[in-house]
Amino acid sequence: MTALDATPLARRSGVDELLGALGSAGLRRALASGQHAVLRGGRSDRFDAVLDPAAVDRIVTSGAIGPAGLRVIRDGQRVPAERLALRDGGGLDVDAVLALYAAGHTLVVERIDRFDGRVQALCEELGARLRAADVLAHAYVTPPGGHRGLAPHFDEDDVLVLQLAGTKRWTLYEAQVRAPRSAHRAVDAAHRAGRVVDELVLAPGDLLVVPRGVVHAASSEGSASIHLTIGLLPLCWVDLCKAAVSLAARGDVALRRGFGADAGELAALARAQLARVGRDAVVAACRQARARLARGAAQPGEIGRLLGLGDAVELGPTTPLRARAQLDWQRCDDRVVLSRGGRRLELPAHVEVQLVAMRAAVRFTPAGLPGPLDAAGRVTLCRRLAREGYLEIEREAAGRMAGRTARRCADD
User: Fold this and answer.
1) How far is it, in rounded angstroms, from Cα 369 to Cα 352?
2) How does DSSP classify residue 85?
3) Distance CA 30, CA 209 (A)
4) What is the β-pairing status of strands 391-393 and 207-210?
5) Closest CA to 8 of 40, 38, 30
6) Is the distance from CB of 202 to CB of 168 less than 8 angstroms?
7) Displacement of CA 85 from its chain's centroid (Å)
8) How far, in Å, CA of 344 to CA of 340, rounded?
9) 89 SS3 class
């Protein structure tokens, strides 16, 4: 196990701030080796810029997620979704959920990246940085008193655990299956938990890295526990091989035919059929894999476009702004291309100077951006990025500016 100290997470959190001394390279080494790692935070509010406990509370108690978006579990047993639904309309019965929580059940907000733009932004950056095929985020809320939501188990994805509130005791066991796939979940639970390799307690601000296949279980202690898990799903060689065969079969009827050979002939015939998978199919499968990796975590949705329409209308030269998500782009000849949520935005290459400044700044105004654009051009660029969900108005700073303006007017 690797144990390191973290530096405080800046307000605009990113992968570097999240991983601290571990770094992207250290994370890759830990995941490749199958060894877990823990990063001690030092500050209880270190992850508030990613997801604060109050936000988790609001998402659950507002009922906005619906019964399908909430998993209620205890010792591995899941409460049926129909028990969480209101009788009259199928919405979430918040009172029933809170009663189950009080009785010792863990609440799991599935795909919380769909409900919070800060979590989505971090998932997008992690997906792009670590070349993950998909990135999924879930929030776990466990009541105090030693309760456990899940029995010892392993995951098919590499998992980052961010402890947000309270403490949680983790037990990690020797991995029984390296690089598991869904088929390995059929392994009997009694054989999953082998030798205990570590026991540790996570406090707010701590980060735990659990590679895929490492068996683990966690329980609360004397206080309620909230933690966020971010799962990094890799694209595996088996995925590439399956894709190549499927692509070859589109144009080769022999691969689409059924077979009736006996066991003795089957192996030889299978080898002959696999030899029919030509170079073109392999190249096409690789192209698909590269495209999926390039999308990274752009699958969760497009949080910010609805509010961005209003922000674009309000936005002026001195409006304080911040990036809603990590700004990443590719340079293509005389254009820069941004992609998010499956959408592409192409801009002239000369705006790259402004994009670099936006990405580096905690807060900025259109008038303060460098580069060749004139004042009107800077506002137009920012409005377009706001409409697409890349930028948002920094409301707290805007409120302070409005207050100062009002006081000056009153003094005059």
Assistant:
1) 11
2) B
3) 8
4) unpaired
5) 40
6) yes
7) 27
8) 7
9) coil
**Unique residue bearing structure tokens 């209003």:** 310
d(CA 66, CA 1): 39
Which domains does the chain carry?
A: 2-233 (2.60.120.650), 241-295 (no CATH), 305-411 (3.90.930.40)
Nearest to 360 by CA among 319, 403, 326: 326
Lowest mean pLDDT among 95-109, 128-142, 186-200: 186-200
Tens digits of residue pLDDT in 214-240: 999 999 999 999 999 999 988 888 878
Distance CA 349, CA 331 (A): 7
Indicate the pairing of strand 335-340 with strand 158-165: unpaired
Residue 172 · residue 193 · CB < 8 Å: no
Q: Which of 355, 360, 394, 395 is nearest to 371 (CA)?
A: 355
- Beta strands in 255-408, from DSSP E residues, in sequence order: 321-323, 330-332, 335-340, 343-348, 391-393
CA distance 391 to 351: 15
Distances (CA, A) of 391 to 124, 162, 342, 358: 15, 26, 17, 9
SS3 sequence, 321-356?
A: EEECCCCCCEEECCEEEEEECCEEEEEEHHHHHHHH
**DSSP-assigned beta bridge partners for residue 212:** none
Amino acid at 146: G
Number of other CB atoms surrounding residue 45 within 10 Å:
15
Contact by Cβ (8 Å): 170, 150:
no
Question: What does the pLDDT look like over 258-274, one tens digit per residue?
Answer: 876 565 677 777 888 88
pTM of the model: 0.67
Q: Which amino acid is at 366?
A: P
pLDDT tens for each residue of 59-86? 898 877 888 889 999 998 999 988 998 8
Mean pLDDT of 279-294: 73
